[in-house]
Each structure stands twice: as structure tokens, then as C-alpha cells.
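Postdoc handover notes: sequence design on the structure in folder B. Input C-alpha cells:
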């Protein structure tokens, strides 16, 4: 019994010691933080917004040194880029695209003393945290605007890849559009790419030809808004306020504020309180929001959006609460129920109102 008690005590002590271990504080003037981007910072969208977050860190912590590398493919080259960051003194690395996930794990195993933060992934480790935002909430709000502004009841959606992140956003957008206008149908073109300006523009044109008088997007450049402006149809952008690409037709956009999580993380590294977390913040934290409205958006629509925004931000209600049917008529979420985060993170079905099927 004494031997067993000693083993239990030692095991408990080990657990306590492990739990108590943390990364040492890094003074701001000694801290180098690095960002790994899969696109160019001039894309006007995804990478541009991440880089604005990096610049917010520089402003909030002027003694911290930041560095970045852009247009790194989601493959072995990303490991080489992270190794180069570390050779140059980086203590925390932000990998800003889903496809970096396994490569972050590889680099983290080699460098247990370096902190890694991976965007949109699901694999964690002692020195790897993950972060993302509940963009589906802002998508829903932008859908309210789009559904209110269509006259043909046909909305076109240019979508990157058929993965849960994109499907979740498409579904939330459609739920918002049909909340404002139950007759709305959403047509989708899949790009199978994150960044392809030419393909994005051609997809937008095809949707206009198919009858859409409002476009929306999960793509990384301003090509869809440009196509909307040229075709004379409204558009809801993404990532950033994309009104510069469609000055007369851009209604609003669900936008990111990555600086919220970047400043939070850097402060914890400086204070020595960083630990791996699964961060998934939304409207309540200001990590996602809507871009300013176009002058064409009526006050009544703005009031509708604001009412729904308050309900979501307060925690009173969230987007995927029942009843919700899929686009085949099956009841997926019953009245009084809502999807769990795991349901949201693995979503592979389309809501009522989205035309077509998911690509295999």
C-alpha cells in the first residue's frame, strides 16, 4: 500500500509539475514574432487582413520585432520558412492558413521551446495553440443585407474549397439571406482554390449569367467585386471592406480583425502566461464584424442587421439554432436545439436555399 501511495504521489507531483510548467516571459524588446502567409500582403483580402493584425501588434508593442514571409505554399516550403524564422530569433510563429497544420506540428516537435499559433486548424500540442473566428456570425449578418437587396431572388456565391469552414460560411450567409427574404435561392461556383483572381472573376461572371443580381464570396482577392461592378450587380465582399473594387455596388462585407488575437497572444508571451488554447472568438470579442454599408442599403435593413447582431453578440441566440433543414428537405436541427461547435467544425451539408450538391 505504501508503495502504491508513493507511486500515486509521484504521479500527482509529475502532473502538477507539468501543469505548472510554462514558457518563460520574453521582454518586449527581446521578442521577435513571425507571420507565415500563404498569399501576398497586397491581395486586399485574407493575407492583407492578417498583415494589418501584425501591424496592430507593432503599434501596441513598439519594442516587439515582427517579421513575415508571404506567398509560401502549404507544403514543405512552409517548414523551411519556419526554420528560417527560428534561426533569425523568432520566439512565436503565427501560421495563417489551414494547409500549414501538419507542417506546424512537424516544426513544433523539433523546437519545443518555440511557441506556434496555427490559424483555422485543429491540431494542438504543448507549444501549439490554434485560433480562428466565428466568421459564420458575420456571414449571417451580411446575408441579411444581400437577401434584402436582391430583386430577382437569386444570389451567386463564389466559394473556395468545399471544406467545413467554407460550407459553414455559405450556410450561415444563406440562412441570413432567407431570414430577410424566404424566396431567395443561392447558386454556388466552387473554385477549388484560395487565390486565383482570374478564376474568381470568371466564376462571378458565370453566376451573373445564371441570373444572380447579388454576388457574395469566399475568395481572397477583389476580383469578384470587380466583376460585380462591371456587370452592374450588387456584391457582398469578404475579409476586408472591398468597396474600393466595387465603389458603386459593394453593399458590405464580413471582415476579420486578426489584431484582437495577435495582441492577446503577444501580451501573454511577454508576461510568461502563454499556454496552448483553442481560440474561437466571434462578434462578442470584435474578431469578426461587418464593413460599412453602401449608401443604397436602407435604414430598415440596417436596423434588422443591428437587432440580429445584438442577439448574437449577447449570447441570446446563435446562427445555427433550429429549426434548420438541409437543401434536400431533411430536418437537421430541430426546434429548440442548436449545433455544437464540433458540428460546426465538421459541417458537410448544405442548408435549404442553396442549389446543388457538395462536390465529392
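Designed sequence:
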Amino acid at each position: 500500500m505504501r508503495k502504491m501511495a508513493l507511486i500515486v504521489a509521484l504521479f500527482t507531483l509529475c502532473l502538477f509539475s507539468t501543469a505548472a510548467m510554462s514558457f518563460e516571459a520574453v521582454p518586449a524588446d527581446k521578442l521577435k514574432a513571425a507571420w507565415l502567409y500563404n498569399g501576398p500582403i497586397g491581395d486586399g483580402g485574407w493575407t492583407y487582413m492578417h498583415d494589418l493584425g501584425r501591424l496592430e501588434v507593432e503599434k501596441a508593442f513598439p519594442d516587439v520585432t515582427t517579421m513575415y514571409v508571404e506567398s509560401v505554399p502549404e507544403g514543405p516550403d512552409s517548414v523551411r520558412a519556419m526554420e528560417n524564422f527560428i534561426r533569425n530569433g523568432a520566439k512565436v510563429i503565427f501560421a495563417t492558413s489551414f494547409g500549414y497544420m501538419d507542417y506546424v506540428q512537424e516544426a513544433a516537435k523539433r523546437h519545443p521551446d518555440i511557441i506556434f499559433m496555427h490559424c483555422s486548424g485543429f491540431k494542438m500540442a504543448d507549444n501549439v495553440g490554434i485560433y480562428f473566428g466565428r466568421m459564420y456570425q458575420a456571414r449571417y449578418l451580411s446575408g441579411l443585407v444581400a437577401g434584402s437587396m436582391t430583386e430577382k431572388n437569386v444570389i451567386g456565391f463564389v466559394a473556395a474549397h468545399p471544406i467545413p469552414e467554407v460550407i459553414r460560411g455559405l450556410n450561415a450567409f444563406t440562412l441570413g439571406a432567407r431570414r430577410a427574404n424566404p424566396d431567395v435561392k443561392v447558386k454556388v461556383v466552387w473554385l477549388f482554390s484560395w487565390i486565383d483572381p482570374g478564376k474568381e472573376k470568371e466564376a462571378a461572371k458565370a453566376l451573373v449569367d445564371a441570373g444572380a443580381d447579388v454576388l457574395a464570396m469566399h475568395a481572397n482577392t477583389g476580383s469578384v467585386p470587380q466583376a460585380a461592378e462591371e456587370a452592374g450587380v450588387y456584391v457582398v465582399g469578404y475579409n476586408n471592406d472591398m468597396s474600393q473594387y466595387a465603389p458603386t455596388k459593394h453593399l458590405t462585407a464580413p471582415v476579420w480583425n486578426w489584431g484582437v488575437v495577435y495582441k492577446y497572444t503577444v501580451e501573454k508571451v511577454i508576461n510568461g502566461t502563454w499556454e496552448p488554447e483553442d481560440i474561437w472568438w466571434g462578434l462578442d470579442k470584435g474578431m469578426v464584424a461587418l464593413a460599412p454599408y453602401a449608401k443604397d442599403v436602407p435604414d430598415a435593413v440596417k436596423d434588422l442587421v443591428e437587432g440580429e447582431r445584438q442577439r448574437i453578440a449577447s449570447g441570446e441566440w446563435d446562427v445555427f439554432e433550429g429549426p434548420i433543414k438541409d437543401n434536400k428537405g431533411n430536418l437537421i436541427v430541430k426546434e429548440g436545439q442548436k449545433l455544437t461547435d464540433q458540428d460546426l467544425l465538421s459541417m458537410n451539408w448544405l442548408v435549404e436555399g442553396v442549389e446543388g450538391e457538395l462536390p465529392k
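Context for whoever picks this up: Residues 2-20 form the longest helix (19 residues). Don't rerun without checking with the PI first.
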